[in-house]
Amino acid sequence: MKALTTGGALLCAASLANVTGVAAAAEFKLPPFETTRLPNGLTVLLMERHEVPLIAVRAVVKAGAVNDGPQAGLANLTGDAILLGSARHNKAAIDEAFDFRGAVLAGGGGVEQTTVQANFAKADAAALLPLFAEIVQQPSFDNTELDKLRTRKVSGLKQAKESPRQVAGTYYRSMLFGSGAYANPAGGTVGSLQALKQDDVKAFHGRYFRPDNAAIVVVGDFDPAAMKQQIQALFGQWRADGAAPQRFDYGKPLTDKARVWLVDKPDAIETTFLIGGGGIARNDPDYVPLQVVNTVLGGRFTSWLNDELRVNSGLTYGANSAFSPLSQAGTFAISSFTALPKTEAALDLALKTYQRLWDKGIDKATLDSAKAYVKGQFPPRFETSEQLASLLGDMYALDIPRSQIDNFMRDVDGLTPEKAKQLVDRHFPRNNLQMVLVGKASEVRKVATKYGEVTELDITADGFRPTK
């Protein structure tokens, strides 16, 4: 299995989409990597890849929108504000150092993790790794730059509500998780962002950016002994006061009755919709085979949903379905859009197509086609150092076991129509479906009542919850 540590092997594995033999597919494994923990509690993950002289670095912190509390958008703002300079170098100097070398520096906060990432040439590691360490541990959060960043984010939120497809998912998560932390909008709201100050960002960084709540991931062309020494020198003195933050219950999907959130956009000429309910956690043992089953329903262009709603009926330009897993729970949603007058027809056809999972099931030929498709898509997702660094970061932040990656091909090949039926019954929401409709309420209000208890929201109102 030694060849599997090389990028060439991964590229060969990428050709599995055109291979019918199971043996070749089963050979894919995640390249070896080393996990260590520094005395200060910092997790370090190192994966050598010597095919190209590039290095990808990630600092992954277990904190995101779930930790915002009443200050929606705080984690996301902090993740971006990390890049505004360090205690020793201002933003212009850091930008120049990375841009001059053709390197990439980025940051951001998601639902459960905040990541700072850098990609650069091996020859530039000595110059750029110290800067990377500075901004992670000692960001300046320059107030002038922070004001500019906050203003841009507020403008972005306002613009997003002009495009229902950009915000429908945020309404959907808010609907499903209610008062739970998973309902927090990662990007915040206009009001919450405008209220955030420099002290708030500094406090969030101090509370969560600490070695016992973070990992440094390095993937690429480096000498492991030298890299360990450099990481120890740059991050070994990182300290934090008090006990490390602990995870809490982020909430479970609310599915006690069928509900519809009708988000009124009076100038809309289309209805954007999501239909579904609760999903799975990212480390669920069924995560891999569920990708295959969902591929049949709505995970590729030739899926049932796309065939029925786009190809056969012309009700939309596209329809899909997806599981969106998080560390503790997740969501499942069918999503599409259609012209206002066709809203009822599109919703009914989507539901009818979804019901095929139970009424007819998935035959062997259809399942085999989906299995080949999924196997062909899988290896290319982990070809580059950047992709592998992101994967290792997710594995750390979301508690994804290595076995889920190494056994991917085996778990796909082991799926049968009988097992697929069991997965459908176990994980696809069937009763008390939840629905978000974004469109012109006066045109679809009556239609909405067919599908559950209706709550109306105004898209121009701040945030993504019903106003009280």
Automatic annotation (TrEMBL):
Residues 197-372 form the Peptidase M16 C-terminal domain. GO terms for molecular function: metal ion binding. Gene3D superfamilies: Metalloenzyme, LuxS/M16 peptidase-like. It comes from the Bacteria. Residues 45-174 form the Peptidase M16 N-terminal domain. Pfam families: Peptidase_M16, Peptidase_M16_C. Keywords: Signal. Residues 1-25 form the signal peptide. SUPFAM superfamilies: LuxS/MPP-like metallohydrolase (SSF63411). This is Insulinase family protein. It comes from Pseudoduganella buxea.
